[in-house]
Amino acid sequence: MKPETSSFDQDENPYQVMGIPFTATEEEIRRTYFGLVREHPPERDPAQFRRVRSAYEILRDPVRRAEWDLFVALQPPPSLPSRRRPKPDLAFHREDVIWVLREETRPKPRDPKGDFRAIELPRP
Amino acid sequence: MARRKRRRGKAKRSSRAPLRVLVAKGNDAWQRGRMEDALRMWNQAMAKRPSPQLAAALSEVHFRRGVRALVRAQDCDSVLKSLADLERVRTLAPDDWRPLYYMGVAHHLLGDLEQAQVLYRQVLDRNPNSRRTAYRIALAALERRHDPAQSQGWALLDERQQADLLAGWRLLTKKGRQAFSRADGAPAVDGGHPLWVGLAVLDGRRPDKKRAKEALERAMGRENEDAPRFRLAQAYMGALLWPDDPSAAARHWDRAARKGVPSWMSQNHAVGAELLARCALESGDADTAYSYARIALDYDPDRPVYREVMGYVKFHLGNCAARQDRWDEAVEQWTQAYQLGCKELGLVHNLALGHERLERWTEAVSAWREFLRRRPRRADAPGALSPQQEIQARRHIASLYWRVGREKEAVRFYRQVLSSQPEDESNAGLRVELADLLASHDRWRKAEQTLHEGLKHHPNHPQLLQALGLLYEEQHRGTQAQEVWEQLLEVAPDHPIARDNMADHLARRAWSLEEGGKFDQARVHYERAIEYAPQNVGLKLDLADLYYQYDKRDEAIHLVEEAMARSPNDPSVLDAVVRFWISHDEIQQADGLLQEAEGSSEGRAGLCATVGMAYCLAGQEEKGEALILQAVRIGTVPHLTAIKVAVTLLRQEMYALAVTLLEQCLYEFPGEPVASIALTTAYVLQGKRGRARQVMKEARYIARQMSDRESASMLEDMEDVIKSAPASALALLELIGQADET
Fold first, then answer.
1. Distance from CA of B741 to the nearest CA of A (A)
2. How high is the pLDDT of residue B1?
3. What is the tens place of the pLDDT at every residue in B480-495?
4. What's the total number of domains in chain B?
5. Are residues B60 and B147 in the same domain?
6. Which residues from A are below 8 Å from B98, CB to CB?
7. Portion 17-36 of A in contact with B at CB < 8 A
8. Choosing a second label site near B550 at 20 to 30 A (CA), which of B257, B294, B419, B534?
9. A66 to chain B: nearest residue by CA?
């Protein structure tokens, strides 16, 4: 489960920035951080380094991480549990024959026009 | 009511209108397509003078209205309305056979097959070549399980119509494949339209699904997508696909149902829609998921599975809205999800965040409480809170309760955290918050007790000691506070709050010793206080003051210069030192300091005025006047200083200078009551009573405009005093100045 960042947060989602799951351990966080730092050294990619660094700052501190998870991150909906669903009706219904024939011969809006007559009014 | 009256009046007027007008108006309404108005006018005309043409016109309008209603009818009521119009045609024009066919159709739609057949036959009797009537007679016969081939007008039907009706009759009356079996009993494939074949092989205990599928595919290939045969074939195709490929089946049902299928199929549509909603949710398409979930829920709003799917969809939609900063909408969606029975912990958490975002504190605290109540208790369970988070959540709930004014609950939540982990050092902050909360409601003993409980576990915790020290200070329990500060300074010698407070305590002790004439002890206390707060200029000046009192001028000067050297550019230090020199009649020192600091001090105008006043009091009016004028030139003299200096000047009978100072003051603070009283007094003393009246008038006007009743009444009271005894006014002003200083 990976929390989403609500927009009122000033920072980016640190989990997304570091590409780690919400459940990552301290060791995993540390290892990922050093990997990312090697990938984006400050002298070559300062902007990305800053992002990674600030994400790491949040996640390495248990208090800040707990606060972020609790008061900033939106919880995503979990997967829908698979329950017994209602069964469809797979039987043959004979009356459907009548439904087809009725539907086909039902008068359409343009059909009755041939039955209409002109109106002749009495002369004053 | 008024509209009804108007309409009634209009009807009365039109009923009195001449016949030709009614006919013309009816015709006009007819031409504009307003059938109701046309009927009303012509009915009135008919009531005036019946005529065959009018009757024909009326019957035509009823006929058209009835037929149009019939072809658009979606429910029984519309069919019945249509029938009423058609029966009216029969009354107006008994020889007109046209309504009979449509009346038959209406009865047919209502399920009254017998009456429908009677009416169809009457049409055929009048118009023996009506193929549509013959078809409907055969269809009604089929529906009554009669052989359609025996019905009246059978011969009028073409081959395809006959084949369809016969296939239908066989399907209805015989079972499954037998319907299309040959005489030799072998399964037949010939049944006219492939739909009939498909349906035939589906019937029976062991339907031939493979052949049914082929036939239905052919049926769909032959018809366009809007045709009822296509839709029915598609619906049955879904039923065939369901066991192996439910998603494909659901899509078939959805497409068929959108154009119309037999009513029993709605159940399958709902079942399929629920499945499609799940698929859309899994692929992250919440909008599509919503449209499918809506279909399922509309079919059966109470079915838990459908409610659950819709709940999850709304959970997703709420998150989408929140990510786009639409918090109102997000909370609305989450609330609906919750009401639909989605009780996911994440949803409750998001609701809590959303309510906070919208500053709905009461709802937020309820959501947080539910979140906490339902959290997983096992530490390794998914979504379990860490102990840190649990403390934070409880603390947060406590602060929300505090915010909404429910202190009891707030205290309870703080206590819950503290009692669960009384020895946890990180709870010290929480204890301090609780103590603050209790103290803010004057529950001092409880606050003290809370801090002592913490100190029992961690006797030297700086945060707890600081809070306890401040608590004692607030209650003016100096000795205990001092003990706490001493303890804290042993643990944290540089603790700034403890040092400041210790310095304060020592200074206070020094003052009382000084008052008791114990110079040496007072000096020791001052020196210790200065050790704790070396930056405190006031303490140094206090000690310097002490030296002065005991004729140790050099030591005093040394201390003052040390204070100045420590903060040479601090205006407040300059101010304090200048005032110190003046209070000890060392005007030269004060003036010298002022001149040295020229240009570097912001509050120089006030200081110049004060030093000028000191010169005046010392009899050096010229120097004093020069400095006061300099003060007015270089800036604005603070109004309390200005008033004090002005009153002194008035006492010294230096009226013009006082007026200059006070006029500047009132220019900056128009209507200021004490300055106004002082200036009025100055004018009275100068004999300028007109000006004095003007100043008072303006001040009273401004006080009234500002709704400052207190000032207005003070001005009124003082006006009489100033007029009768300006000296008394001066005495009062001095008192006001002293009160303001304290």
1. 47
2. 45
3. 998 999 999 998 998 9
4. 5
5. yes
6. 115
7. 23
8. B534
9. B389
Report ipTM for this prediction.
0.76
* Residue ranges making up the domain that contains B144: 51-169
> Which residues between 573 and 612 in chain B have a beta carbon less than 8 angstroms from any beta carbon of chain A?
none
Q: Does B275 touch chain A (CB under 8 A)?
A: yes
Asked if B506 and B526 count as a contact pair (C-beta separation under 8 A), the reply is: yes
- On whether residue B355 sits in a domain, the answer given is no
Cβ count near B127 (within 10 Å): 13
Are B154 and B253 part of one and the same domain? Answer: no
Domain boundaries, chain A: 4-74
Confidence at B648, pLDDT banded by 50, 70, 90: confident
Averaged pLDDT for residues B564-578? 73
Q: Residue A74 pairs with which residues in a beta bridge?
A: A4
B67 lies in some domain: yes
Reported as a pLDDT band with limits 50, 70 and 90, residue B13 is low
DSSP secondary structure of A54-93: HHHHHHHSHHHHHHHHHHTEEPPPPPPPP-PPPPP--S--
Class of domain A4-74: mainly alpha
Q: Using CB atoms, pick whichever of B135, B253, B353 lies closest to residue A74.
A: B353
B228 touching A, CB under 8 A? yes
d(CA B638, CA B648): 15
Nearest to B268 among A81, A88, A108 (CB): A88
- The residue type found at B360 is R
Interatomic CA distance for residues A25 and B36, integer angstroms? 77
Q: pLDDT tens for residues B345-366?
A: 999 999 999 999 999 999 999 9
B255 in the same domain as B205: yes
* Confidence band of B180 (pLDDT split at 50, 70, 90): low
Task: State the DSSP code for B111.
Answer: T
C-beta atoms of A116 and B64 within 8 A? yes
Residue of A nearest to B278 (CA): A80
Say yes or no: B487 and B520 in one domain: no
B514: tokens are 């000084």
Q: Is residue B626 part of a domain?
A: no
